Amino acid sequence: MSNLANITGIKHLETNNFFLMAGPCVVESESNVLRIAETVAKITDKFKIPYIFKASYRKANRSRIDSFSGIGDEKALKILGEVKKKFGLPIVTDIHSAPEAEMAAEYVDVLQIPAFLCRQTDLLVAAAKTGKFVNIKKGQFVSPDSMRFAAQKVVDSGNNNVILTDRGTMFGYHDLIVDFRAIPIMKSFGFPVVVDVTHSLQQPNQTSGVTGGRPEMIETIARAAIATGVDGLFMETHFNPAEALSDGANMLNLNHLEGLLERLVKIREVVKAF
C-alpha cells in the first residue's frame, strides 16, 4: 500500500486524520498562489490535517479555445516551487502528456492524472517512472472496479505510490453524482482513496461553454465522504471564486474553509471510534 510518509514535507500523519489536497484550480499569479497556500497551511496546522497544496500549472481540458489555460508552464511551475520552498509544503499538479511527467516532477511531489486521461497507459507509465506519488482521478465514465487496472499500470512500472480519487460519475449530459460505494471498492485495492469534493459538484457541458457547479453542496459531499471512511479530501478553493480564472463555479470560498474543516475533523473522530 502507498505510504503517504514518502511524500516529502507532509506533516501531521501521526494524527490519523484525513489528508487534504487543496488550492486554486490553476496558477493565476504568484501573489494569489502564495496567499492561498499560506492561509490553508495555517488552517490545516491548526487542526493537524496533513496537507498537500494543489494547483494546476496548466489546464489542458477546457470547454472553449478562449478559456484560460495558464500563465506559461515554466513560470507556473517555478511558482509552485516557490510555494514548496517558502512554506515547506508538498505539491500536487496535473500532467496531461508523457513528456510533462519528468518536467513537472522537478517541482512537485504528486503527479495528478486527470479523470479524462485515467486510462492513458503512456501517461501513467511516465508518471510512475518519475518515482513520485501518482494520484489517478477516476474517469467520469469509469466504474470504481475498473480503477484497479489504472493503478496496476503504475505498480507494474515499478512505483507503488498510488492514490485514487473519485470526482463523480456522469449522470446525464450536465450533471455528476458521487457513488459512495466507490470508496470501499477502491480502498480494497490497497491504496489511499480521496473524494474530490468540488469537481464532483461540477455541471459540465453547459450550452454557454462555461462549466457550472453546486458549491452550496460542498459540505454535504465532504461530510458523506468522511463518514464513509475516505482517506483524503480534494477541494479547489479561492478567496473570490467569482473572479477565479478556472472552475470558479464549483470552488469553495476560502473564507469558509476553517469552519468546514473543524466540523469534518469532528466527524472523523466519530468515524475513527468505529
UniProtKB/TrEMBL annotation:
Residue span, DAHP synthetase I/KDSA domain: 14-271
Keyword Transcription: no
Locations listed in the record: Cytoplasm
Keywords of the record: Cytoplasm, Lipopolysaccharide biosynthesis, Transferase
EC code(s) of this entry: 2.5.1.55
Gene Ontology biological process: keto-3-deoxy-D-manno-octulosonic acid biosynthetic process
Reactions mediated catalytically: D-arabinose 5-phosphate + phosphoenolpyruvate + H2O = 3-deoxy-alpha-D-manno-2-octulosonate-8-phosphate + phosphate
Any one GO cellular component localisation term in the record: cytoplasm
GO-annotated molecular function: 3-deoxy-8-phosphooctulonate synthase activity
Pathway assigned to this chain's UniProt record: Carbohydrate biosynthesis; 3-deoxy-D-manno-octulosonate biosynthesis; 3-deoxy-D-manno-octulosonate from D-ribulose 5-phosphate: step 2/3; Bacterial outer membrane biogenesis; lipopolysaccharide biosynthesis
Enzyme class: transferase
Gene3D superfamilies: Aldolase class I
Keyword field contains Cytoplasm: yes
InterPro entries: Aldolase_TIM, DAHP1/KDSA, KDO8P_synthase
Record Pfam families: DAHP_synth_1
Family the UniProt entry places it in: Belongs to the KdsA family.
Record-linked PANTHER family: PHOSPHO-2-DEHYDRO-3-DEOXYHEPTONATE ALDOLASE
Protein name, as recorded: 2-dehydro-3-deoxyphosphooctonate aldolase
Lineage, highest ranks first: Bacteria, Pseudomonadati, Bacteroidota, Bacteroidia, Bacteroidales
